[in-house]
Design goal:
By secondary structure, this protein is of the alpha+beta class. It has 2 helices and 9 strands. It has one domain: Nucleoside Triphosphate Pyrophosphohydrolase (Alpha-Beta Complex).
Length: 171
């Protein structure tokens, strides 16, 4: 345990380098076009064949907005306009923090990338709820529904009871 720390860490005996293992940051968009929601059917594991919003890991030296736009371009072939930060989700069991932006596409033209089997804008009543890849996709769609017409809103966090594991102390 490094001096002044509260956790065991891997420390180099020669140079003293401390290897901090930190959560992964995922960025993405909930993109709409004429009240339809963009979903991408995954071509990769985990959850190959299931539907998700375009999202992925933030790269080094990239802003969260730039990363979210990059992921949307790579997975669906569209670069939307970011409206606002929709949600910040914490997924403790996999040590992930997800930042999801609300965005608007200027066109419905989609060009799925290699990580996407199919990309499509869905009317709300046609969303394949039973085939969504991750709980956070469901959370983001529901949060979007709550604030879609609001001029100003605060970002949301994990919905009550949807932590995916034991609820954090104090919440």
């Amino acid at each position: 345990m490094p001096a002044g720390d509260t956790k065991m860490r891997a420390v180099c005996d020669i140079c003293g380098f401390i290897n901090y293992v930190n959560p992964k940051i995922v960025v993405g968009t909930l993109t709409t076009w004429r009240d339809r929601i963009l979903l991408c059917r995954r071509a990769i594991e985990p959850r190959r064949g299931f539907w998700t919003i375009p999202a992925g890991y933030l790269e080094e030296h990239e802003t969260t907005i730039d990363g979210a736009l990059r992921e949307t371009r790579e997975e669906a072939g569209v670069v939307p306009t970011i409206r606002a930060l929709l949600a910040v989700y914490s997924v403790r069991r996999i040590s992930q923090v997800q930042l999801i932006y609300q965005a608007i596409a200027e066109t419905d033209e989609l060009v799925p990338g290699p990580e996407t089997l199919e990309a499509r804008f869905f009317e709300r009543q046609r969303i394949p709820w039973d085939a969504l890849a991750f709980p956070s996709v469901r959370w983001a769609i529901r949060h979007h529904d709550e604030v879609a017409n609001a001029a100003v809103f605060a970002p949301r966090s994990n919905p009550e009871g949807d932590w995916g594991d034991e609820r954090p102390a104090g919440l």
